[in-house]
Automatic annotation (TrEMBL):
Pfam families: MRM3-like_sub_bind, SpoU_methylase. This is RNA 2-O ribose methyltransferase substrate binding domain-containing protein. It comes from Mola mola. The keyword Cell membrane does not apply. Transmembrane segments: none annotated.
């Protein structure tokens, strides 16, 4: 006991000496591990139930080393549990298609999710807008639920479909999409590549339809009336004309090589599904056009102005009609730039007041009688040729009308008013022709409709 007291006195003396000289020395005190044994155990939060539980064992009953090992084991168990859950979540995501590029199913139909940086949509849309690509690759681009449904109902073959949500895909007939590649993309991506102000979230690539293999719903309501579009170069006009032709129940529509592509996106939007309601045959020469018409057809041309050959009946209805000198430039229904390879010229050395007069001097135009649009002209299978507003009719169109004993169909308008829009004039002529043909069919039967088909 005496020895213990002496040691404690010495220790106190040493500490006082150190405190006295603290300003001159750097003191390094040893760690006291004894205090660590007296601390309370660390609380562990278990990830399974998230409750706060304190181990039953305390420092008084377990050594310090065993307590540290128990804490490490609990931490390792929690980490392993989180890893197992992460692996399970990853496998479930891959299985359900939540990982980019993996496959999924909607109502039994498998589709793909576009992965990050997927450029298929932009690449396909950009090339499908090219007429060269459409003609060489035989593919067309359709956008919107109604247009795609019309194409599927008519028997068109889908190749690739981009959609933004499962609800958009379910709006389409899923049984007709089994052979197509379905890709789910973000709506923002479709909005970037869409031409519409309010995109519907679905874009499709189809094989270019073959009119001979399509199932047109309006076939039973058609009349023996064909429409020939000559040099229609405005997409909006052509789309509206096709829509009028489908509404009037035309048998088919023939497009010359000077027309805008019928499968251009602007034409498709203006036509409102007319491409899938009647046969449309594009890029035809005049020899090919004759082969697509029956032998007994009568071809009429839409006249946009009056000339020196106006009949007395037309003259009575147009009191203010003026009679000008006969030359090719006076005929609004003939192109101001005819095809020189098909023109018949006469030698003439006379000078004219303008270059245009000199260009058409001596032109032998076909003689085609004029007739008002509401007069009788559609009494047998007929065809109507409508020219573009800029180029007008080709000389070959007028020659074909002369060959088949057709007429120049004239729509009278009030003086000092420009000619009608080509789409408006087409609608007037087609519905008048339909009315006349239906009237004849009711009295004489449907024999030429069968021959026309």
């Amino acid at each position: 006991m005496a020895a213990y007291m002496r040691s404690m006195i010495c220790l106190v003396a040493i500490e006082r000496h150190i405190l006295a000289n603290r300003g001159r020395y750097i003191i390094v005190e040893p760690k006291r591990y004894v205090r660590g044994l007296r601390r309370n155990p660390v609380r562990v939060l278990f990830p399974e139930d998230g409750t706060d539980k304190t181990p039953k064992a305390t420092a008084q009953t377990r050594p310090a080393g065993q307590h540290v090992r128990m804490e490490k084991d609990v931490r390792d168990a929690a980490t392993e549990s989180e890893a197992v859950k992460a692996r399970s979540t990853l496998q479930s995501a891959v299985k359900d298609g939540h990982i980019g590029g993996s496959k999924n199913h909607i109502d039994g139909l498998r589709f793909e999710r576009a992965f990050l940086g997927d450029k298929r949509l932009g690449r396909v849309v950009s090339v499908a807008r090219s007429r060269t690509f459409r003609e060489h690759q035989g593919k067309i681009l359709l956008e919107g639920r109604r247009l795609i449904c019309d194409a599927l109902d008519a028997g068109a073959t889908p190749q690739m479909m981009f959609f933004s949500s499962a609800d958009r895909l379910r709006e389409l007939p899923l049984d007709k999409l089994k052979r197509a590649t379905l890709i789910k993309v973000k709506f923002e991506d479709i909005k970037i590549w869409s031409d519409l102000v309010a995109p519907q979230g679905v874009i499709a690539i189809f094989s270019r339809p073959d009119p001979s293999r399509m199932d047109f719903a309006n076939r039973g309501h058609s009349v023996p009336l064909s429409l020939i579009c000559d040099n229609i170069r405005d997409p909006g006009n052509l789309g509206t004309i096709l829509r009028c032709a489908a509404a009037a129940g035309c048998h088919n529509v023939l497009l010359t090589k000077g027309c805008v592509d019928a499968w251009e996106p602007k034409v498709l939007r203006a036509a409102m599904g007319a491409h899938f309601r009647l046969p449309i045959i594009p890029s035809l020469s005049w020899d090919d056009i004759e082969s697509h018409l029956p032998k007994a057809v009568t071809v009429h041309v839409a006249d946009t102005s009056y000339g020196h050959e106006i009949t007395r009946e037309t003259e009575d209805s147009q009191v203010n009609a003026s009679h000008k000198t006969s030359k090719a430039g006076d005929y609004g229904w003939v192109s101001t730039r005819p095809n020189r390879r098909n023109m018949r010229h006469e030698d003439s050395d006379s000078d004219s007041d303008s270059d245009s007069d000199c260009e058409f001097e001596g032109l032998d135009l076909p003689r085609v009688d004029m007739r008002l649009y509401h007069d009788t002209w559609a009494q047998s299978p007929s065809a109507v040729v409508v020219g573009g507003e800029t180029q007008g009719l080709s000389l070959e169109a007028v020659q074909l009308a002369e060959k088949t004993a057709g007429h120049r169909l004239y729509i009278p308008i009030v003086p000092d008013v420009d000619s009608l829009n080509s789409a408006m004039a087409t609608s007037i002529l087609l519905f008048e022709g339909r009315k006349q043909l239906l009237k004849v069919m009711q009295t004489s039967g449907r024999k030429w409709k069968q021959q026309f088909s």
